[in-house]
Amino acid sequence: MNTADTHGSDRAGHVARGQDAFREANTVGDGVHADDASREAAATDGDRYEDPGNAPDQGEMELAERHALRRVQGLSTELTDVTEVEYRKLRLERVVLIGVWTRGTQSEADNSLTELAALAETAGALVLEGLTQRRAKPDPATYVGKGKASELHDIVEATGADTVICDGELTPGQLRQLEDVVKVKVVDRTALILDIFAQHARSSEGKAQVELAQLNYLLPRLRGWGDSLSRQAGGSGGGSGGGVGLRGPGETKIETDRRRINDKMAKLRRQLAHMRTAREVKKDVRRTREVPSVAIAGYTNAGKSSLLNRLTGAGVLVENALFATLDPTVRQARTPDGRGFTLSDTVGFVRHLPHQLVEAFRSTLEEVADSDLILHVVDGSHPDPEQQISAVREVFAEIEAVDVPELVVVNKVDAADPDTLRALRTRYPDLVEVSARTGQGVSELVTALAEALPELAKEVHALVPYSRGDLVAKVHEDGRILSEEHTGEGTALHAFVPALLAAKLDEYTPSGV
Ligand SMILES: Nc1nc2c(ncn2[C@@H]2O[C@H](COP(=O)(O)OP(=O)(O)OP(=O)(O)O)[C@@H](O)[C@H]2O)c(=O)[nH]1
Ligand SMILES: [Mg+2]
Questions:
Q1: How far is CA 495 from the centre of its chain?
Q2: Closest atom of ligand 1 to CA, residue 306
Q3: Helix (H, G, I), strand (E, B) or coil at 167
Q4: What is the pTM of this model?
């Protein structure tokens, strides 16, 4: 918690307050300028692994495509005969949610279940009922207590639900034993999030990362799922202990499956290592340009992609669903005083992000840790934004991003409760309030962002011969020009530039300046 706190608002800094008049006058923010040339540059830099085209309406196309494809997800061909991989196509239709509430207030417990409902809907399920049980800790056998479990069975039967989703990560044994009582498929929050990620991954790297996480989750659960599902499939009616005759061949099959899964995981790890190298190379290119990078991070559905769109007109997918964005999108942008920087959208965070996913997405999340500034986008219209802020900061700590300066950006102020906003202002005095929807506050955000960006290191005076027009162009691109004059010998420049570019300009610096 201490690490998270040191990451606090005091360091976010730079945000001028009391500019309400200015804000009123600027309700339609035009955002950071991203010209076509720089957008083209972003495309050739190839920050996406499967470039879906660079048309401005790309986000809309993705959205349409997603709606068209929703719920038609195939299995990887290599695993089609592993029947226990069943959970990968959860085919959630009608679900009942159940949560064990161990600490905190009633409203926190309710928020948690509301979030689970949003996750379930994002995965394509229809939520019929949500229940919580207050207990000191989850029951080691059936997650909820025995009595509650049979009550749950009655509700499942009465509503005609086909799946129960538990708000936590269950042990293989708990999953199996609860299934025995409720007689329908039981999945946990982790499996649900993995399923959403599987539906949403678009790049080959994202797909590989999710598949690795799924297999990782599946491995210790093979037997549990296998037992329970085969009993159900066999229609033997929930007798305990499984069929004697099934045990031998069942175990052999599990061994085979386990080996196949291990092989598949090894292959995925190799592929990912390879893709990672490719990404490092691209990052190096960016680093040699020394353009500062800004990462937009925050809780899922906070409005990160909307804000990126508002800031650059990038046409990135926006959807009122959790985890709409899984693949990093990087755009070139420019501050009002002309300094170039990159702005990247990232995968949303969630409370108790399954550990397998943090592992799998480590390379993607490291983009955040490697950035020069984090715009931490917070959903101001959520009933409990502070809890989301802490959840996000926990992930920052896990990916070692706590040293990166953070600017807290409270989004959706058009829909936020004034009391919530007041509480946030007290807690994070340096925050910026915006609405990606209406554009309110966006120009203040641009100013705050420009101030928080690391200053370009070097002031140079140079006389660049006309044969080195490329260098002058670079100064225009990456630097901030104070004066420029065309003389008989070349272009005389006075500018602030990144250190690396300053070194290149060194030989054109007249001595004595
Ligand atoms: N009222 C209001 N709604 C907003 C605002 N910004 C975004 N939204 C809505 O919030 C939802 C989520 O927006 P996204 O931009 O997809 O959020 P995200 O943080 O990128 O979400 P993930 O990629 O899923 O993590 C969408 O329905 C947006 O229309 C805002 O300023 N005001
Ligand atoms: Mg997004």
A1: 37
A2: 15
A3: coil
A4: 0.65
> How many angstroms is it from 166 CA to the middle of ligand 2?
25
Q: How confident is the model over 254-272, as a mean pLDDT?
A: 87
Give the ligand 1 atom nearest the CA of 309. Answer: 15
Confidence of residue 110 (pLDDT cuts 50, 70, 90): confident
Q: Is the pLDDT of residue 351 over 60?
A: yes
What's the CATH fold of domain 2-67+291-452? Rossmann fold (3.40.50)
For residue 12, give the nearest of 509, 498, 362, 427 by alpha carbon.
427
Work out the average pLDDT over 135-144: 91
From 62, 67, 306, the mutation candidate for ligand 1 (largest count of ligand atoms within 8 A of CB) is 306
242, 243, 249, 252 alpha-carbon torsion, rounded to 10°? 20
Q: Give the atom of ligand 1 at the shortest distance from the alpha carbon of 349.
A: 25
Which ipTM value was assigned to this complex?
0.98
Superfamily of domain 70-267: GTPase HflX, N-terminal domain (3.40.50.11060)
Q: What residues does each domain of the chain span? A: 2-67+291-452, 70-267, 458-508
Which ligand lies nearest to the CA atom of residue 349 in the structure? 1
Q: Is residue 38 lining ligand 1, measured as CB closer than 6 Å?
A: no
Q: Is the CB of 344 under 6 A from ligand 1?
A: no
One fold for 2-67+291-452 and 70-267 = yes
